[in-house]
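Example complex used in Figure S2.
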Amino acid sequence: MKVNVYVTLKPGVLDPQGKAIHHALEGLGFGGVADVRAGRFIELDVADGTSDADLEAMCAKLLANTVIENYRIERP
Amino acid sequence: MKTAVIVFPGSNCDRDMAVALEQVTGRAPAMVWHRDTDLPDGTDFIALPGGFSYGDYLRSGAMAARSPILRAVADAARRGVPVLGICNGFQVLTEAQLLPGALMRNAGLNFVCRTVPLKVENSQSLFTASYNAGETINIPVAHHDGNYFADAATLDRIEGEGRVAFRYADSVNGSARAIAGVLNDAGNVLGMMPHPERAIDRAHGGTDGLRLFEAALGVLA
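Predicted assembly (297 residues):
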């Protein structure tokens, strides 16, 4: 079973990489971009029937640093 | 004094740390591999060195914080054994939740590598007792992810408890409240981005780092 995990910086946490990407987009002539936030996408191939609790624990214990990041789990 | 340096794949300041510890204690530290599950018996000082453990995969320090030896380090820290994390070692200590906050990409996105002035904020800790509060010392930094972040409540709390050991006197990496080094609540764990082990010999260009080791290792000059 493929599970997608999206790790993103919490709102309010400065994202210098997102800002640099934003500037680069503007440099390429793409106007009208209000903001860019960069995150991480992790694809897990887990055993069928892996519990939500286990997936939550994987995110909270390792995949995201919950001091600065939020995560979202997307199951098929 | 029995000291130990934890070595991860990708550590690159472990030997500099060993030189500093041996210079001050007269005894070479144990070099403890990340897969080990125990520290040598009687270890009474632990150093987590700088470098790029596990290639900074996932987040700086994230993998190292989950390595087998970190359980032993956390147990020792809870027993009150002094633990010093420098640079990547600081990142590992925050990832292991032995220190509050997180270290993010430098605000300027550049790798910063130069000697910077630091203001000593707390001169009462076991690591900083050889400095004077408010004194400015010069210590090299070399990092890409040194931008200290914690939420406002945490920052207020650690400042109120005197747990900010050092602050940058200049703008370096965008750290919240210019924090360069943080103590745990018991005061026996210090994490800092600057490298005191690179300032222990006149040939380094300065010896301001030496006093940290002298204080922490109980050989106050």
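The longest helix of chain A spans residues 16-27. The longest strand of chain A covers residues 2-9.
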